[in-house]
Write a structure and sequence with these properties.
The protein is an alpha/beta fold. 34% of the residues lie in helices and 13% in strands.
């Protein structure tokens, strides 16, 4: 397809010289975040190719089963191939088409083919129709409408840890408005942008009622690309392709293999090779998880047994194990991404905030993989910068010995985040629960290293280990007496947290406020 921005006609390989069918794009509902390719302008969008030509729907030699394909631009690490005019809101890269011309439509127009040139006036009318349906949500460090707390700012990073340059100034400006304490939450994996906003709103809702009189608090959410699963039995191809666009051909072939479940030695061998390619094993520095190096059939059996003990041999057992192997490979990629975004995105940003607003006390909170992001942000703080007044890990999906000077099975080695907890002026709190089976069962299997000792478990399952002076508290004790003013603290929250996603609990909000020292 050739498409010049601002022209009326274009052609593609299926109908050379014919008019371009403009793809129908519109806002998604609140429960459709898993199908969103990206956020563009102020609303999420949905790409539907069911009414395009076969050439647009098919990869060379491989028909696509799903209409939800394509990658919203700007693409990571690449400049826009065309200059976007006001007439068009989105350009999408397709496998056989350099660019597709899109425009946003009212909700009622979703799914229908649209011909012709929108023009600046039509585009403005389309934007007006959409804007009337829902309040604007700014994702550049500015305010977000409809939040449960104020002032709230949203901080965004791409997979490389890059974000809008004005974000640090937006946070520092809160201090000039009288904010003394800033609570910042990083969501975990499977967080779509809209879902992350809702999560922050729900999590922060109890805070105003928990703060001491006179405490002036601000709030912020860290949004990063992490949506890979949507709650169905296995990983969602559409969500995976959204956050891992460079792996789309690999993901598509993995999806084909998983449709009937891998069968035969050749299929399992290909499945294992594709998992390693997805996880970037060839480019990895240091040891990799053992399940990516082991026999793929044995790996699938291992995960199937962990998920459903006693499930009889057969296609369904292999399918469940293979889906979980794919899920864990994707989580491995996102774990590395979370660390990178924390160290090279959030950490430096907090350093800039500290320079602009040295009196602002920042309280970091991370859930699941977001806890890993927050932990690595401490490593990414500039030398001498100490803006972080407290840290709370909620069901943290990173190794228990991350802060240790020595690993128990390899005393000559230290944890990846050795001593970074000393960069926090106040307490470092790890909330853990024995009911978090995602961290207690699957995490150890997926995290065991192929070369050398693996982590004993996740922080969110058993707390921090290997740090001298770490104290343990029950949830009831913390709610009654608070937490120490400094040092590492493990808090057993099993009485309130019964699953990995059990986050928006008032008890956890009280733990965070207690760690901050701003509570009643």
């Amino acid at each position: 397809m050739t498409a010049r921005v601002g022209t009326e006609y274009a052609h593609d390989t299926g109908a050379p010289g014919g008019p371009l069918r403009v793809l129908a794009v519109g806002p998604l509902g609140p429960d459709s975040g898993a199908h969103a390719l990206d956020r563009v302008a102020d609303e999420p969008f949905h790409l539907d190719l069911r009414r395009t030509t076969p050439a647009a729907r098919d990869r060379p030699g491989t028909p696509r089963r799903t209409p939800h394909i394509g990658t919203a631009c700007p693409w990571p690490g690449a400049a826009l191939p065309l200059r976007v005019s006001a007439s068009y809101d989105l350009l999408v890269r397709l496998p056989r088409i350099p660019a597709a011309r899109l425009r946003r439509l009212p909700v009622a127009g979703l799914g229908g083919p649209v011909r012709g040139h929108a023009g600046r006036g039509a585009a403005a009318r389309a934007r007006g129709a959409l804007g009337a349906a829902a309040p604007s949500k700014r994702r550049d460090g500015r305010a977000v409408a409809g939040m449960s707390v104020e002032p709230y700012r949203e901080i965004t990073f791409d997979q490389d840890g890059d974000g809008p340059p004005e974000q640090a100034a937006a946070l520092a400006a809160l201090a000039r408005q009288g904010v003394s304490d800033l609570f910042l939450l990083a969501h975990g994996r499977n967080g779509s942008p809209s879902g992350a906003t809702r999560l922050c709103s729900d999590f922060f809702a109890p805070f105003p009622g928990l703060l001491a009189p006179g405490a002036e608090a601000g709030y912020a959410g860290v949004v990063w690309p992490s949506a890979v699963c949507t709650g169905e039995p296995g990983p969602d191809y559409r969500a995976l392709a959204t956050v891992l666009p460079e792996k789309e051909p690999v993901l598509e072939r993995l999806t084909d293999l998983l449709a009937p479940a891998p069968a035969g030695e050749a299929a399992f061998a290909e499945f294992g090779a594709l998992l390693r390619e997805l996880a970037g094993v060839a480019d990895a520095e240091g040891p990799v998880p053992a399940f990516l190096a082991a026999d793929p059939a044995e790996v699938c059996d291992l995960f199937a047994e962990a998920l459903a003990p006693g499930l009889p041999e057969g296609p369904e057992r292999r399918r469940q194990g293979a889906r979980e192997a794919l899920r864990q490979a994707a989580y491995h990629v996102l774990g590395r991404r979370a660390g990178h975004v924390g160290e090279y995105g959030l950490g430096p940003l907090l350093g800039r905030v500290a320079r602009a607003a040295p009196g602002l006390r920042i309280h970091l909170v991370g859930h699941g993989t977001g806890a890993r992001l927050v932990a690595y942000a401490l490593r990414g703080l500039p030398a001498g910068a100490r803006p972080v007044a407290s840290v709370t890990f909620l069901q943290g999906a990173f190794p228990q010995y991350a802060f240790a000077a020595r690993l128990p099975d390899a005393p000559e080695r230290s944890g990846a985040l050795r001593d970074v907890h000393h960069r926090v002026r106040g307490p470092v709190v790890a909330c853990h629960s024995r009911y978090d089976t995602a961290l207690g069962v699957l995490y150890p299997l997926a995290s065991r290293l192929a070369d050398g000792p693996g982590p004993a478990g996740a922080v969110g399952y058993g707390g921090m280990r290997g740090v001298p002076g770490t104290v343990a508290r029950s949830l009831a004790t913390v709610l009654r007496t608070g937490v120490p003013g400094a040092g590492c603290v493990n808090v057993d929250v099993a009485e309130a947290v019964r699953s990995h996603g059990d986050l928006c609990r008032p008890e956890l909000a009280r733990v965070v406020v207690a760690a901050s020292g701003t509570g009643r």
